[in-house]
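Input sequence (358 aa), recorded before submission:
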Amino acid sequence: MKVVISAGGTGGHIYPALAILDKIKEKYPESEFLYIGTHNRMEKDIVPKKGIPFESIEIYGIQKKHILRNFKTLTCFIKSQKKIKKLLKEFNPDIVIGVGGYVTGPVIKVAHSLGYKTIIHEQNSIAGKANIYLGKFADKICVSFESSKKYFDEKKVVFTGNPVSEVAIKAKPLDKTTLGFDKNKKLVVFVMGSLGSNRVNDSLLEIFKNLQPKDYEILWITGNNYYEEVNKHKFSKSIKVLPYLDDMVRLLKNTDLLVTRAGASTLSEIISLKIPSILVPSPYVANNHQYKNALDLISKEAALLVEEKNLNEENLIPLIENTLKDTTKQEKMKEQLKTFQVPNSSEAILKVIQEVIK
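Predicted structure, token format:
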């Protein structure tokens, strides 16, 4: 099988794309792949390290605040289509898959115009405008939440879940003592997505300066950009700070409470591993989709919510400590998370690919 896949910008798009490729490799070991991503985002570093052929295009998202920059965006979009057309004709794929990020726009559109079979994957409960637009060019549309089906042609849409959930389930647990944590104390992990969040980190810095956890420990993953600033400060011995953790999903299997954003891939890991969580949705994303993602879980008491504007010691610390003590609440969250589970998401997406190719 010859596969072109495109996803970019954040881990929420990139890691589901990689999970799909891994499933294809597992079933079709002789497959050939080409990954098309942006020239200046995370995928340019992550994908080549995994030995996957990578081609970049210069492309930017639409700017609402800086309208004049959209002239460059439009120019890059037109130029990118020429390069994509050349890449696709040379590679001649059986299938072209878009997994999110503005880079997928021209890739799916050009692939459709050339007559190649196409699939897109929507991770969020509220479908993005780009994917809604691309829906008319896709042969099939895979969605992670039942609630996002309504945005697409019902004849094309298939509920598959998010493929990172399958990766999470298969991951080997990481012994938290290897990071210096006490095996007899509960662990609370703070992480704000693959890129971190300066505003949340500023709030956490104020909260953690005087915090002295007694019956639990904290791991605060700041993101690389903020780590040096945080590392200047001293905290309780029960609070450890790291810029990044490669084995994050493995550690989540030994995490008692997760405080995190509400990105689609993060929620898929929470759901698949049944992790009690406090969600802090980013208010800066398109269509406020993280808040709407979170509401899917909140409405069924499968998670707790603190909005970023309310993130302070008075709101956060009692919520953490009460949740750690309330085993009934934790078990209720875990039971409710089961209702969202799709255990074989990558397999479901592979079946869609096979059907489209046939």
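Checked by second reader. The chain has 14 helices and 13 strands.
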